[in-house]
Amino acid sequence: MDEDHILTLLAEHALIREDQAARVKEIHASTGRPTGSILLSERFLDEKQLYAFICQDLGMNPASVYQDKFYEISGLTIPKFEVSGDFYGSFMLDEGRIALTLSDVSGKGIEAGLLAILLANILRTGVRMKNIIPSMILRKVNHASTRFFGEEQFATFIVLILDMHSGTVEFCCAGSPPILVYRRRENYVEQLEVKGIPVGIYDDFLFNGSRTSIEKGDVILMYTDGAYENQNFRNEYFGLRRVKDSLRKNSPRTARKIIHAIKREIKLFSMFRGLNDDTTFVSIKRSDRGS
Length: 291
Prior knowledge:
- The chain is α+β, with helices and mostly antiparallel strands.
- It has nine helices and eleven strands.
- The strands form two sheets. A six-stranded antiparallel β-sheet has the order 1-2-11-10-7-8, covered by helices on one side. Strands 3-4-5-6-9 form a five-stranded antiparallel β-sheet, with helices on one face.
- Helix 1 (3-12) packs antiparallel against helix 2 (18-31), helix 2 (18-31) packs across helix 3 (35-42) and helix 4 runs parallel beside helix 5.
- The chain is globular, with a radius of gyration of 19 Å.
């Protein structure tokens, strides 16, 4: 994505002034520093305004993601402070497919917001592509991030594409916790893990994707590392095992109720102490009804 387009977008929505956008371009032209790095150092952006723009105008972290009689998709972000560094989004593709993304950005705040803008625009330019695949999306996000920030910022990422006709799931992970899948037939939680470094570290890194499928009653859970990093009064971590147990136990519920149940269990475990980190969940449940 062209850096000038980002600056124009920020100026059009009054997130920076036109003279500030011009100043960023001037510094970039004279020093060659990445545009995002300049925006961070000059401190032109207000964190709360940027977060509101991303959620309200770009549609990231939506309260309701998707629901029909065959699938329910729900998400939840619990910020450690007022503004989260976690973002999830959904993008309808062609032929009954939907792309879902989840990111956890280092540095939080403004860094996360700018990367979310890059992500949203990359996905929206590719929604008409029939052959779009998660690994290709991550390569584009990685290239855009390293070009925009240099190698100063990085983020964990998941890109997942669900074919709602067949139940086929294609996914690619970049430094994220493993995706969990509750298999109703076996009453078992499977851990899907594809190794990959976070985006923003190496510009030419080749991400590898994988695929699986879900049947009626199966549930997919994506989450950021805040889900298992909360501690109790003994300084024990909630841990991945408890996340898995909670997913299996609550699997008969709706997608929305599953993630809210996990949230409650984390709060009870930590005795309502503050979060160690932003925590975000995205769940997909395939209905028992229909074919």
